[in-house]
Amino acid sequence: MEIKVNKEKCTGCRICVDVCPAGAIEINEEGKANINENCTFCRLCVKECPENAIEIVGEEKKRPQTELSQYKGIWFFAELKNGELSHVCFELLGISLKLAEILKEEVCGIIFSSDGEQKAQQLFNCGADKVYLVEDASLDQFRQDIYVCLLTELIKKYKPNIVLASATMIGRSFIPQTAARLKTGLTADCTDLTIDPETKLLQQIRPTYGGNLMAKIICENYRPQMATIRPKSVEEAKPTGNRNGTIIKENFSAFNATCRVDLVSKESVEQTIDLQEAEIIVSGGRGLGDGKNFDMIRKFAQLIGAAVGASRAAVDSGWIGYPHQVGQTGKTVKPKIYIACGISGAIQHLAGMSTSDYIIAINKDQNAPIFKVANLGIVGDIFEIIPRLIQRLESKG
Amino acid sequence: MKYVVCIKQVPDTMDVRIDPETKRIVREGIPSILNPYDAYALEEAIRLKERFGGTTVAISMGPPQAEAVLKEAISLGIDEVYLLSDRAFAGSDTLATSYTLSRAIRKIGDFSIVLCGREAMDGSTGQVGPELAEHLEIPVITYVSKIISLKETYIECVQLLEDHYETLRSPLPVVITVVKEINEPRLPSLKGMLRAKKTQIPVWTKNDIGGDDVQFGQDGSPTKVVEIWRPEIKKEGKTFTGESDELVELLIQELKKLGVI
Fold first, then answer.
1. How near does any CA of chain A get to the CA of B175, in Å?
2. CA angle B228–B232–B233, rounded 5-degree value
3. Hey, are the CB atoms on A176 and B130 less than 8 Å from each other?
4. Residue B114's closest CA among B15, B5, B204?
5. Other C-beta atoms within 10 Å of A203: how many?
6. Which of residues 183-212 of B touch A (CB under 8 A)?
7. Closest approach of A140 to chain B, Cα-based (Å)
8. Which end of chain A has less Cβ packing within 10 Å, N or C?
């Protein structure tokens, strides 16, 4: 399959150059459009060309695949956190149930744990039909090679139609390797999923180009259709009383899973609150001027039960550790409330927090871009406002 | 020891502007840059060479103009570079991209460590590193924040996860993807820049790297982009100015309304 410009029809109007999100089109010396290797085949140019001069030619070559209709069921990987189901499991279950309503297929959780039956029951109570369970004392600890092996073998054996995982660091580490072993498609960091009413294909929606654009992606010819889902972007499934489900236990030793990488030691970071799970985040930026001023941010955060975030400028200045960085080169967060203190709001920072439910910004520069995404903007001096805020909060006891 | 770094040229996304009339991206004058994460991977490869000896190689897949990032790599001190460029690579998703890179790395051969940035700024998938490891049939350690030691047969590094660090030991060869915490990239040296200017960048096409035809480009890509659009910008909020005490009161009221206090 190829994308071609019909040189006869092309007028060199540059519309395609402007619409191409990949920047893959240039006008050559002959004044005609030329599409280079950066092309992602998104077909925007095909749609937008007023002369219909751009076309996709040739048949798509495919690798041999098992009959696609054999693949049934919506699976989600139930990630553990400190030995318990992480809240992201319920988000995956929530979106899986929505997809199941349209597809009329069963929703199945995948649990790798030292002790999984009670966890399976938690998933059943929230609407899951089935749980595939692999139990072993070693499985509470994430091991890339082991997880890839187990998930790949389960998928080969039971042929699910869709496999979802959270776009946590664990999901983003082992799911791509699993997809590559299965030679199927994987879409990273989706913020929504839907089913095409006609083709019944999974439509995977994700932000791209630093959050400037949204893309809808499908995996038409290979199975399973796989996606990682950005934490906090879909509704969690809620318990609906005691429900029954089927547990399918697989014997761990039968997988012959071996891990090439050894775990030597573990060490926790400064703060145990996980930014991506926090309901409230208070972030500090360049406006703090000095690392010791982060104490006031920490204090404020502590008083309202928030996690501490930071802009890239603050992290680059060495005022706080990288695990706290919010933004394109840090973490993407979506808390209920995000409070930005002394952060101007560079696009990279906005890309990591602009979908928060409610944004409060405190900055002395009223033209700061952060105010464009803020629900409540306070133009003022953080060194006057935050200490007084802390005082008020403390006096309430 | 041979260290191979995979780098990518990306549009400088912070400059993306949308024409309010046509709703199209204004591409005019948007520079292409080295993916910022890849700078840490290049730096780490150079440091590995300085600490343990060996050769550094950088590869990039992209259009002919992507040679700019390979020149940048040379100016920083990378020994060898290759550009993977072929119209047959167009439309590659992460699976096809990682396959293409794996073919080139096999051709380079005799490698100990493959380094990638944790993700690229444009697509932000972070999938190429782990997928590459699978194609090469070697282990992967993602989100590496520190390399502790490198021995003849293994490497020990620190992986940064959401709320903790893990120290992991992997046999060689291995793929590692690095986070910015790992180092502070150096600036190009004058000598490096001169060398970059003089170097003719070797270009490898599909025929040069060989492989399974149906695993390249759009055909080798299970995922297809079917639609791209611009998200709606968040509604305008309210912005207040005034005396600090008034503003504090306003914040207290707001936090009460939100149920925080």
1. 12
2. 130
3. yes
4. B5
5. 18
6. none
7. 14
8. C
Digits of tens for pLDDT over chain A (397 positions)? 889 999 999 999 998 988 888 888 999 999 999 999 889 888 889 988 999 999 988 888 888 877 899 999 999 999 999 899 999 999 999 999 999 999 999 999 999 999 999 999 999 999 999 999 999 999 999 999 999 999 999 999 999 999 999 999 999 999 999 999 999 999 999 999 999 999 999 999 998 877 778 899 999 999 999 999 998 889 999 999 899 999 999 999 999 999 999 999 998 765 556 788 889 999 999 999 999 999 999 999 999 999 999 999 999 899 998 889 998 778 888 899 999 999 999 888 988 898 888 999 999 999 999 998 999 999 999 999 999 999 999 987 5
Write down the CATH number for the domain with range A2-57: 3.30.70.20
Separation of alpha carbons B135 and A181, rounded Å: 8
CATH of A275-395 among 3.40.50.1220, 3.20.20.70, 3.30.420.110, 3.30.470.30: 3.40.50.1220
A377: exposed, middle or buried (C-beta count within 10 Å: 0-12, 13-18, 19+)? buried
Query: B11 and A23 in contact by Cβ < 8 A?
Result: yes
CA dihedral of A328, A334, A339, A341, whole degrees rounded to 10:
-10
CA distance B187 to B41: 14
Q: Could you please state the CATH topology (level 3) that the domain comprising A68-255 is classified under.
A: Rossmann fold (3.40.50)
What domains lie within chain B, and their CATH numbers?
2-215 (3.40.50.620)
Q: Letter for the amino acid at A168? A: T
Instruction: Assess contact for A212 and B19: CB atoms under 8 A.
Output: no
Give B179's contacts in chain A (Cβ within 8 Å): 322
Write down the residue that tokens 């294909």 correspond to: A201
Best A172, A322, A328 member to test B by mutation, with max B CBs in 10 Å, is A172
ipTM for the whole predicted complex goes beyond 0.85? yes
